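Translate sequence into structure tokens.
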Amino acid sequence: MECEQSFYGSATVGERGQIVIPAEARAEMGFHPGDKILIMKHPVYKGLVMFKIDAARNFLDEFGSMLTKLDAAPKEEA
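Result follows.
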């Protein structure tokens, strides 16, 4: 099984708090100028996680649909 690359290099935080996302990461993730990015604190480690807002919305929509199907399914008796 081929392992996907998840390390693209490093970035330096500038004086105004800005970073540059490496070009290879932008290309692979489809980040384009003007895209809205959701930045969240990692729930366990000291770090940040980022998503395109559209990708997060699609995930949540799919997750909601799965929950609706599960809720509508006949209940199993324990």
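Note: Residues 53-72 form the longest helix (20 residues).
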